[in-house]
């Protein structure tokens, strides 16, 4: 019989009781941060809030927000709340230059993160009898280590595959009868295609579920993956700043992701005014960690736009659910799982001697993202041969790849052919239908 | 000695070529050669005209990415084997060629060829020594 919850007491705790638990933890967390992080203390002093002003969840709004720029400013140690000697691990954001954030973990932090992932695996039907194939990247990226640790906690047999090498993924999946697949949704779709190409039917594999995250995906993509692999596909959410994957996860209802509220308090704010919005309204998701030692973040602005609901879920879990992110309040794009800021592409263009007139087009074909960058040629760069221009395109494509980690297709176009607009330029056209 | 060729970057969009030729026609500029190298996204148009400097200004004024490239022009007899002889002469001298195209001659017995090579001066010497008349 399948186990329904990893931590039944917590996951099904009545909301009143959960709120009391959150309040107790929040008060301790605020005190811990204030006492140990000078940067945060200065921020709170500036806002005129003392730790004593925060007596529970209802006082959360008094605290100042922090954002990625605070984390960059304090790189590498500025947000650390324990001595380095007490830390056992770091992880880092996808490593888009200039935006790197390092998160620190004590053993306690690792344990709570892994428990969050374990809850996700159990919610997807995982037990100690399962074989969990983790093909998220291992290393600085949180995907692999997080699900790997969660799978250990569940007691499942863990296949630490990491990403890539699809041939080997398929061999292990078939030979070792993997039952749960963890990877990005686009890679899951790719594995589905590859299985089909090799003549496998969906019923030929032993998979029953997949836990997919780290990039936006649609209900349509979910249906495709479920069909091609013969599984139920579950969404998982997280960000390095708050631990990694597992901050929120889908249950068997596949209708919103339960936020692990015993560790994280979620708020939805108006991204322009910072005002807290009532439940059910669409706005920017803000997280406050309440149980972290090394890298606690209070009111961290995720930039993800979504909706929260605490309506009762048929699965029995009481924790609030978040919708799939419906977009970003900044201009960040997630392309093939990699965070991309248009400003990074602009930096490369300027460095390579191009004018910052460009257009980025993102689309998705066969469940895989494409990135096209259109750049205006300057008269002095003009070559009178096709090979000269294609060589320039290739060189620029390589430079952008070095910056972003993903390869774009570069198109050089005539000067002034990229539309200028008054005010904020429309530089990005995202044709992926990520939000139903 | 070289002749002036106009090189124009043309995006693969409807009406671009018509726009270029009309702009030149309006200024009474006469074309004697036209060649296009094209890819999926763009083409490179090469033109020989009677008033290249004027044509450059006209097209720049219309916002085109255009430049003047000096190419070697030769006159060859309109006879089988003559182009091959010219190209072999260049090849034997180790001169690499990027592209070439033919253009209109008003003299019935000969053809004009525009050649884009790495070193115009060297190419012209080789071709003159091989007995070809160099234009420009």
Explain what this protein looks like in three dimensions:
The complex is a heterodimer of chains A (436) and B (136). Chain A has helices spanning 8-11, 15-36, 38-46, 68-73, 107-123, 143-154, 166-175, 185-197, 219-229, 342-351, 386-404; strands spanning 89-92, 102-105, 131-134, 157-160, 180-183, 209-213, 232-239, 244-250, 257-259, 264-269, 283-289, 300-306, 308-309, 321-322, 333-335, 338-340, 358-365, 368-376, 409-413, 428-430. Chain A has 436 residues and is of the alpha/beta class. In chain A, the strands form five sheets. In chain A, strands 4-3-5-6-7-8-9-14-13 form a nine-stranded mixed sheet, with helices on both faces. In chain A, helix 2 (15-36) crosses helix 3 (38-46), helix 8 (185-197) packs parallel to helix 9 and helix 10 (342-351) crosses helix 11 (386-404). The mean pLDDT of chain A is 91. Chain B has two domains: 3-69, VC0802-like; 71-134, Alpha-Beta Plaits, CATH 3.30.70.260. In chain B, 31% of the residues lie in helices and 40% in strands. Chain B has helices at residues 16-26, 52-61, 82-92, 120-129; strands at residues 3-11, 31-38, 42-49, 65-77, 97-103, 110-117, 133-134. The model of chain B has no long low-confidence stretch (mean pLDDT 91). The chains are: A alpha/beta (436), B alpha+beta (136). The A-B interface holds A 377, 379, 382, 384-386, 389-390, 411-417 and B 5, 7, 9-11, 37-39, 41-42, 44, 46, 63-65, 67, 69, 98-99, 116.
Short synopsis of the structure:
With about 425 residues, chain A is an alpha/beta fold. Chain A has helices spanning about 10, 15-35, 40-45, 70-75, 105-125, 145-155, 165-175, 185-195, 220-230, 340-350, 385-405, and strands spanning about 90, 100-105, 130-135, 155-160, 180-185, 210-215, 230-240, 245-250, 255-260, 265-270, 285-290, 300-305, 310, 320, 335, 340, 360-365, 370-375, 410-415, 430.
